[in-house]
């Protein structure tokens, strides 16, 4: 950790002190800023009764919030433009908050103006583009109609021979021209309508005008940019002929309702050509103007992006500083700010140096003052962890943050958690796969730590060292079980057993004979595939589970002794630790002893029978189940001790607590009262009421009764719970064996390359999906439960709260 800090100690949290700071107002900002850089002081809110708007620096926080809003606006604009803000500013320019505020206002105004002008130009460009399309499509329609009319007129003239025919028009052109009342004036409207609304548009027009319109629609090949929305939309050009003003008004309203954009069209052919030429020229000029605006906007955003991270950090720091200053209270003279906070004892000297430096740098006439306050308030819990231990500490903290300076199970979790996982996952082939996958995260941690990963990937990356330890222990237990994808290997020498004859005909009936010393390490490979494999491994793993469980529960009870000794709590030592150790080891410690003796002697004694009749018939003779001389008398003594330990746990402690309470308040004893977990709440109440609150004996006794019953029943259920180590190990081994024998070996037996390839693919998929993913998650969760429930409930209170210092390093992105 360096010369300034003591060595890391995970067993007890760092000693903490409540300190008071008295800071002159002129140096308050710089002082808090330096303390944020240091990151070793957790401020208390001395203005909790005030709303955010009533606090001293509400205006400054509002100003920082407005600057943060502008920066988020810039970030959104950069994202839309496809630019990514630089992670590190290209050029570090010293700038204060006031100058930054002015600069952000100017940049926002300029960017908003550029956006508004760009939108207007883009809208005008889209309208001109639509107008050009309408001019072309409608012009084509009129030209085609005129051509057909001319051709038709010539055809009629050529066919007329002076005789009337059925195709001869009833009214000649001359007659219509001579009588103006007979002429019909048709108006027309043209424009663009969204293609998905074109059918409804046509239907509504027909119904509204009762069919007195002529409508033509032509599809536009390419999607066009809609002037209103700015998005690409597939549209149709429409041309509708009508007669009368009423019909025109109806058509205009329908066009407005359907979002159809209308454009003017001149029937004069020469005028059409001139308008198209003017529109094309305007489009070219607008395109040039838009491109120039986009280039200017892109350069502006690039300039913002180069400094964005620096500005963002500055604004977030300023806002955090003012939030912290709002937690300080003004003294009566309104010239100083008074604050309180928690800090580690080792940090006092560093904080004093920071305060002196802030006073010098701010040219303050008076320096800040720091003094230690004495309080009965429980301090926060602070463990200094590194990248390896932090993930294991998070596993413990997920259950509950340790009470101040109580024994931290995280120290033992570093070893016991991956080991219990490996007991359930033991296969050194699977362990190697898990190790290789984890090494990818470990070796590339510098690169990956600076990237944004997905939720699951982020979680795996955070626990990479936990998984690394799980993989290493899985290789170790896999070597003990002698399983490599369920296949045994003679890694540590030949098997200790051999067939009775050369052809091994009677190996499956009579059995094997021992020809050499026992296999050097782990399970002898000869057990694999025999009729007795499952009973042998079941017996082995079940007994191992009980031994591991009893050992870990004993460790938990021993840690409760260290807690009681550390907090000078004699009652918990004499009336909790000692009877709990006696009860647990009188029953399940004795069972563990029997298991070891049976392994050592090779006895055929039935342990089930011994344990059952230890309760049902403690005076009966063990007979052939006796493992050692004096076992009968030992069982009777242990049973008696187990029975005595229950009232030992239950009765004395509440009465002694009551006696201490009475002596303390009657003045007979001025010794400090030992604060136990059960009496802590009552003592706090008595201190608050100046000692006039009565001792709640009934509540203390009921609490102790519940605690005793929980431990007695838990000793049985927790020991049984450790049998999950055996069950999951068996399930993992059998699944691995099934995949190997029923998939890989079965495919190999067909002597077909295609079937073999398919078998290998299925085997790999099953191994990865089931054994390396699902089984890993299952074993992880079961190991988690064993630590949280079976281990930690023996000693761990977990009712503390974390130390959250004011630190700029811990500032995250704020989404307001």
Structure, explained:
This protein is α+β, with helices and mostly antiparallel strands and 816 residues long. The protein has 23 helices and 13 strands. Strands 1, 2, 9, 10 and 11 form a five-stranded antiparallel sheet that branches. The chain has a four-stranded antiparallel sheet with strand order 4-7-3-8, with helices on both faces. A two-stranded antiparallel sheet has the order 5-6. Strand 5 (224-225) and strand 6 form a beta hairpin. Helix 16 (570-601) packs antiparallel against helix 18 (631-650) and helix 22 runs antiparallel to helix 23 (753-791). The longest helix is centred in the N-terminal third of the chain and has 63 residues, at 97-159. It is extended, with a radius of gyration of 43 Å. The two termini are 36 Å apart. One of its GO terms (molecular function) is proton-transporting ATPase activity, rotational mechanism. Essential component of the vacuolar proton pump (V-ATPase), a multimeric enzyme that catalyzes the translocation of protons across the membranes. Required for assembly and activity of the V-ATPase. This is V-type proton ATPase subunit a.
